[in-house]
Amino acid sequence: MALTLYVDSTRWRAHHKHILEQFPGIVPVCKGNGYGFGHERIAEEATRFGSDMLAVGTTYEAARIKDWFSGDLLVLTPFRRGEEPVPLPDRVIRSVSSVDGVRALVGARVMIEVMSSMKRHGVTRNDLQALGSAIDDVRLEGFAIHLPLDRTDGTDAVEEVIAWMDTLRGARMPLHTMYVSHLKAEELARLSQQFPQTNFRARIGTRLWLGDHDATQYRGTVLDVTRVAKGERFGYRQQKAASDGWLVVAAGGTSHGVGLEAPKALHGVMPRAKGVARAGLATVNRNLSPFVHDGKQRWFAEPPHMQVSILFVPGDAAEPRVGEEMVAHLRHTTTQYDRLVEH
User: On the chain, which terminus has fewer CB atoms closer than 10 Å, C or N?
Assistant: First the structure.
């Protein structure tokens, strides 16, 4: 009895093929929990479609994935002087976002991140003179720019990359390879046309692995069903049932990531109003679960336990049955499944 991730492998791989066709030279990303699939599975898929490079989040992830992927491994978290050393093979490329970082990695393979409008990390235009002498002591794999997802000010992503390309070229930096993130296929094509001597490689994770929502589905097994009457007490906190119905114990709890939710950026009146409504309901212990029964998402009867969730299904719905599975709308990047089933 488990929380299961079902994968329609044919559909999932057809989506991979579509993305690979749109982004030649793609660098697939495998970080965190492997976008819900696990590091080993993502490494296997990247190998299957012939990728020569896999991007990972940290050196610790690189140390684990190196045994599952034989190509180059690009560590996305920038190197910092004084970080804990992790034994890694020579095929690992380190991201660097400072001149000091470049100087500390003599002889290493490095990719230099430039500061974008994200304002997260990267070398600045003022760093380029000092960077010019520092890169002679490393094996430079290329430059990279990480772009924002939304551009509310109406600026153009391609123009931002072009501005950096012109700046780097003016500083006489080698521009054989530029790694980019969050560009559309047509935007990447524009850049390739304008700079034919540069190999633009898109680093893609979410769009590649999770771009076809209908290719995957989480389901939690119903473990127990108990009839309750209005006013009857139940659970750890002995709350009263709001009406007649059933308490349903479903596989999937906090250890799986059920009940976890990343903060969202809300734009517009309606999303904000819904956010206020959800917050208001939570103050009276009304929290909508990710589990679906009889066509509707059901409420948590109480906060999810470690490995199961207790749901309340009202009496006017179809009676839940032990052994059946409930679809669960879960975020892949925060979910740990018990088993993966391909069909």
Answer: C
